[in-house]
């Protein structure tokens, strides 16, 4: 009898784990498609930044994909796979992250990472890009929108925030983040050329998140936009667990001319949880100003 109850409990537990809602799931980390050309850009402080460039149709604008904190470009693999060949695509591992090594004497800040992106664009001869940024990647995009507006066609800011105070206090007990933390550490150990830097890297990121970003309403209202017709979309999952649920709406109200899109049933990891729906919205963003492009619509 006891045995039967025990067995029933196991079956019940299994059923529960299979039944987790989409927004609490963390699907496997995607892979970047093969091809393209990878390189390492050495910054003035000796950091070695990894990037991969995929060619696209020459008349189409460059799309730069920026990943979230602790992670790497692979997380954008499904969207890059869907868009490659059509648009030129640049994927960058931020300093200290993924395959990129930073100068360990220097801190990691959003403005330093934004400078890195602009240096790589200059190095590759691109003077303008769309930025598709997730979380920290979106924050880097906001920094570029503020300090280097001429480099931007537009910004697709997914799961981003304007202040370290926007972080939801329950983030570290959410089912997705509990699964994500060991995963990112494991990925770092085989992607990063200096895996022994993990502890130092983690300390730097915690220090970053304890005080940055620290923008306010005025900073977002001051984002130069109009004259350049920049497209800025603030996008998030309705079940966002990392950022205060009120943050995306605040941001889109403050950023002049921006559009707010909330994706139902998904969280901070929407592009992995519901990749097709996410990519559809991303295409709508890309085509918002490109009415002549029809082949990818659907
Ligand atoms: C790292 O940065 C420090 C200054 O912050 C600089 O003195 C040092 O030369 C840099 N290291 C490399 C390898 O460039
Ligand atoms: C940007 O690059 C395009 C082509 O790559 C060129 O036509 C344009 O003049 C450049 N703009 C600036 C400001 O350098
Ligand atoms: C975030 O939400 C918490 C309540 O959970 C609130 O105390 C805090 O003021 C919010 N912060 C921001 C900047 O939205
Ligand atoms: C924080 O996240 C939890 C779980 O997703 C949610 O229930 C709560 O409303 C969020 N808090 C804020 C202030 O957005």
Automatic annotation (TrEMBL):
InterPro entries: AB_hydrolase (IPR050471), AB_hydrolase_1 (IPR000073), AB_hydrolase_fold (IPR029058). Residues 1-15 form the signal peptide. It comes from the Eukaryota. The keyword Signal applies. The keyword Signal applies. Keywords: Signal. Transmembrane segments: none annotated. Residues 65-279 form the AB hydrolase-1 domain. PANTHER family: AB HYDROLASE-1 DOMAIN-CONTAINING PROTEIN, HYDROLASE, ALPHA/BETA FOLD FAMILY PROTEIN. This is Oxidoreductase. It comes from Planoprotostelium fungivorum.
């Amino acid at each position: 009898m006891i045995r039967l109850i025990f067995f029933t409990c196991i079956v019940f537990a299994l059923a529960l784990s299979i039944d987790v809602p989409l927004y609490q799931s963390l699907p496997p980390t995607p892979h970047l498609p093969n091809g393209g050309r990878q390189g390492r850009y050495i910054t003035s402080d000796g950091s070695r930044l990894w990037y991969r460039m995929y060619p696209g149709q020459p008349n189409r604008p460059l799309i730069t994909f920026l990943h979230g904190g602790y992670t790497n470009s692979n997380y954008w693999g499904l969207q890059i796979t869907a868009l490659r060949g059509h648009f030129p695509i640049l994927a960058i591992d931020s300093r200290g992250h993924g395959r990129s090594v930073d100068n360990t004497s220097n801190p990691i800040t959003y403005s330093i990472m934004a400078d890195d992106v602009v240096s790589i664009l200059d190095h590759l001869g691109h003077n303008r890009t769309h930025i598709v940024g997730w979380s920290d990647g979106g924050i880097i995009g906001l920094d570029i929108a503020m300090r280097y507006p001429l480099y931007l066609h537009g910004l697709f800011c997914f799961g981003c925030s304007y202040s370290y105070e926007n972080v939801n206090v329950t983030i570290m007990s959410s089912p997705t983040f509990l699964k994500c933390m060991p995963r990112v550490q494991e990925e770092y150990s085989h992607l990063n050329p200096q895996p022994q830097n993990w502890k130092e890297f983690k300390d730097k990121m915690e220090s970053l998140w304890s005080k940055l970003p620290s923008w306010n309403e005025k900073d977002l209202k001051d984002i130069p936009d109009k004259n350049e017709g920049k497209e800025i979309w603030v996008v998030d999952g309705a079940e966002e667990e990392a950022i205060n649920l009120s943050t995306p709406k605040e941001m889109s109200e403050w950023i002049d001319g921006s559009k707010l899109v909330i994706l139902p049933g998904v969280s901070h990891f929407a592009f992995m949880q519901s990749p097709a729906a996410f990519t559809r919205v991303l295409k709508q963003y890309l085509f918002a100003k490109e009415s002549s492009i029809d082949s990818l619509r659907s």
